[in-house]
Specification:
By secondary structure, the chain is mainly alpha-helical. Helices cover 80% and strands 0% of the residues. The protein has 17 helices and no strands. Helix 5 packs antiparallel against helix 6, helix 11 packs parallel to helix 14 and helix 13 runs antiparallel to helix 17. It comes from hydrothermal vent metagenome. GO terms for molecular function: transmembrane transporter activity. InterPro entries: MFS, MFS_dom, MFS_Efflux_Transporters, MFS_trans_sf.
Length: 381
């Protein structure tokens, strides 16, 4: 059973969803800040970032495992309060071990908020459209965040990022308290009976395959994105010019979810996904093999733009094939695992063979995603 969404509900869902991404969005800022402030090696900061993403994954899995009896609105509020307190504690902590623990707890809280959001949207009418609207709100939030926070780091250092993260969680918690929709609990045994028949592909397994596909997609996209500054440098751009390209891209990124809203499901769900992954793979390969300024500018804009177009369809597909809502709740965790693994694996690849090696290497995660989506396209759903 699905439920209509009011604009107030969608605003609340978008704010909570955006707050859940604030840690991943600002990752380069706070990882670099940790390296500078504590004079530690990059791999230590990277490990702390990995713990944060593990916390997000754990939060989404926790809600997924108890979704039948859990009030998603209350879970979102509790998670955001946990995240706010955890990040606020980081501001006053000088011990790196305690910071790692606090960030892991914060990730757990953000994971609960993200999972509550995706699980709620999966039970609404026009799932793909609503996910597109939520990603539109995410893009607006990203523009505001990067227009304000990096400049404040010059005066307040690392604490500027953590204050912004805590404040975002606080505002999202209030918004969730006021506007987050209450939806009836959907029991796992309400999936259509024919999906549980012997001899047929289980809807649950289709959803799990889709979860791995979206994780592979995020590994490829974020692996590429983590070295976008290096590619700009190779193409002769200084850091200020790279910043201008990325800021322009942030505004153009609005077109991604808007296009997903406009196109909707007139071509189905699977065709936009597969086309997006193929385009993103091609753009990623060109970025690391053809060092021309125009290619860098187009690629730096196209990589996030394509992702923002594709992800609403990916989440919509998961909601379509899993009627329990559990897979939708798990989706943010799988996405964040991809977000964490992408830069780590890309870093290992670049260390082993230089930037040029990353071009052919992206065929692995993107290729895995394409193969899974082709398989899903042939599945019964």
């Amino acid at each position: 059973m699905s439920h209509p969404a009011s604009w107030k509900n969608l605003l609340a869902l978008g704010v909570v969803y955006s707050s859940g991404y604030v840690g991943a969005m600002s990752l380069p800022l706070w990882l670099g800040g940790i390296v500078t402030k504590f004079s530690v090696e990059e791999w230590i900061a990277g490990a702390i970032g990995g713990l944060y993403f593990f916390g997000v994954f754990l939060g989404s899995i926790t809600l997924s495992s108890r979704i039948d009896g859990m009030n998603k609105r209350k879970a979102a509020i509790a998670g955001l309060c946990m995240a706010c307190l955890g990040i606020a504690a980081v501001i006053f902590i000088e011990n790196l071990l305690f910071i790692a623990v606090a960030l892991t707890i914060s990730g757990l809280g953000f994971g609960l908020g993200l999972a509550a959001t995706t699980a709620t949207v999966s039970k609404m009418d026009d799932v793909q459209k609503n996910f597109s609207i939520i990603h539109f709100i995410l893009v607006i939030f990203a523009i505001l965040f990067f227009s304000i926070v990096p400049a404040q780091m010059a005066s307040y250092g690392l604490n500027a990022v953590f204050f912004a993260m805590a404040f975002t969680a606080f505002i999202a918690a209030i918004t969730a308290f006021l506007l987050f929709p209450d939806t009836p609990q959907i029991q796992g045994d309400m999936a259509p009976a024919d999906n549980r028949s012997e001899g047929k592909i289980s809807i649950t397994w289709l959803a799990y395959l889709a979860l791995f596909a979206i994780a592979f997609f995020q590994i490829g996209q974020n692996g590429v994105w983590s070295f976008i500054e290096r590619v700009g440098d190779v193409n002769g751009f200084d850091i200020q010019e790279i910043g201008h390209v990325l800021l322009a891209g942030a505004f153009i990124n609005i077109l991604g979810p808007l296009a997903a809203i406009w196109i909707g499901e007139r071509f189905g769900i699977m065709i936009p996904i597969i086309v997006s992954v193929v385009v993103l793979c091609g753009a990623s390969v060109l970025l690391f093999t053809v060092y021309i300024p125009a290619v860098f500018i187009i690629g730096a804009i196209l990589v996030p733009l394509t992702g923002l177009f594709a992800v609403p369809y990916m989440l919509g597909y998961i909601a379509q094939v899993d009627h329990t809502g559990k897979a939708s709740a798990m989706a943010p965790g799988f996405m964040m695992i991809g977000n964490g693994l992408g830069p780590a694996l890309a870093g290992m690849t670049v260390s082993a063979g230089g930037l040029a090696m990353l071009g052919p290497a992206v065929f692995i995660p993107y290729g895995a995603a394409i193969m899974i989506y082709f398989l899903l396209g042939k599945g019964k759903h």
